[in-house]
Write a structure and sequence with these properties.
By secondary structure, the chain is an alpha/beta fold. The chain has 2 domains: about 5-85, Helicase, Ruva Protein, domain 3, CATH 1.10.8; about 90-290, Vaccinia Virus protein VP39 (Rossmann fold). It has 12 helices and 9 strands. The chain has helices spanning about 5-20, 30-45, 60-75, 80-85, 110-115, 135-145, 155-170, 205-210, 220, 230-240, 255-265, 285-290, and strands spanning about 85-90, 95, 125-130, 150-155, 175-180, 190-195, 245-250, 270, 280-285. The strands form 2 sheets. The protein has a 7-stranded mixed β-sheet. Strands 1-2 form a two-stranded antiparallel sheet. Helix 1 packs parallel to helix 3 (about 60-75) and helix 2 packs across helix 3 (about 60-75). The longest helix has 17 residues, at about 60-75. The chain is globular. The relative contact order is 0.11. GO terms for molecular function: nucleic acid binding; protein-glutamine N-methyltransferase activity. Its EC number is 2.1.1.298. One of its GO terms (biological process) is methylation. It holds the Pfam family MTS.
């Protein structure tokens, strides 16, 4: 390792070791090289859009040791990189994460970056991020829609501690409120222009087949009963009462999309497309849910 001195050296070395170890990539990257870039830059507290001229910069002895240790842990323990770094990037924003929360990776980030256009109409929308986890969806929404008011909701107190940290990180305490609730059941009566959710939707069989990296994430944030539909079904039952007449519901269900359609054949789901990949996100209007 003594011959490795620059940022580029460690990225190349890390990518080679990751490829040799046949790691699974699914928490912000999808290949060994991008994972190595994210690890090295994250370990050095450098931004993901680092200018190319910096990649020849030499690391100090302490930095070399830190990067090497993280590469070794990523391989030997199969811990997802965001947990090793304590941070994840979502919609161009950095979020604190730990093993109490799901790692942000939802394709809903693309909707946020577009201001949910053309679906969200009000100029100052009331928005609910249901099953908020780290708060990444709701907080990013508040950042991209500066006139919005956002409520973050989760059943886990431990999760909400992380969400509160992220709210404070971006100084959004005046526009982002945090509530502990079992879905919508413990919320005060209120109507929202948008309810957005990335709930647990993994069934038992799929859970057993997940790569080792996913087993570091909280089961509560991933699995929902035997077929994965329990939480989604409850959201569909409850959401209509909390939407304005022009309100919309956006929910990620991933690989459970076919099961959702089979379970609700009469609902006119709009399945959203994403330029950067991702699928299994549906949209319904308040009128759809009222039928």
């Amino acid at each position: 390792m003594q011959t490795l001195t620059t940022i580029a050296d460690f990225i190349r070395w890390g990518a080679s070791r990751f490829a040799e170890a046949r790691l699974f990539f699914g928490h912000g990257t999808d290949n060994a090289l991008d994972e190595a870039v994210a690890l090295v830059l994250g370990a050095l507290h450098l931004p993901p859009d680092l200018p190319a001229g910096w990649f020849g910069s030499r690391l100090t002895a302490a930095e070399r040791q830190r990067v090497s240790d993280l590469i070794t842990r990523r391989i030997e323990e199969r811990i997802p990189l965001p947990y090793l770094l304590g941070e994840a990037w979502f919609a161009g924003m950095r979020f604190h994460v730990n093993e109490r929360v799901l790692i942000p990776r939802s394709p809903i980030a693309e909707l946020i970056e577009r201001g949910y256009s053309p679906w969200l109409e009000p100029a100052a929308p009331q928005i609910l991020d249901l099953c908020c986890g780290s708060g990444c969806i709701g907080i990013a929404t508040a950042a991209y829609l500066p006139d919005s008011q956002v409520d973050l909701v989760d059943i886990s107190t431990d999760v909400l501690v992380v969400a509160q940290q992220n709210v404070a990180e971006y100084g959004l305490q005046e526009r982002v409120a945090i509530h502990r609730s079992d879905l919508l059941e413990d919320l005060p009566p209120k109507q929202y222009d948008l309810i957005v959710s990335n709930p647990p939707y993994v069934g038992e069989a799929e859970m057993e087949e997940l790569p080792e990296e996913y087993r570091h994430e909280p089961v509560l944030a991933l699995q929902a009963n035997e077929n994965g539909l329990e939480i989604v079904q409850r959201i569909l039952q409850q959401a209509g009462r909390y939407l304005t007449p022009q309100g919309i519901l956006i929910v990620e269900v991933g690989n459970s999309a076919e099961l959702v359609v089979d379970r609700y054949p009469r609902l006119p789901f709009v399945w959203l497309d994403f330029e950067r990949g991702g699928e299994g996100v549906f949209l319904l209007t308040a009128a759809d849910l009222a039928e």
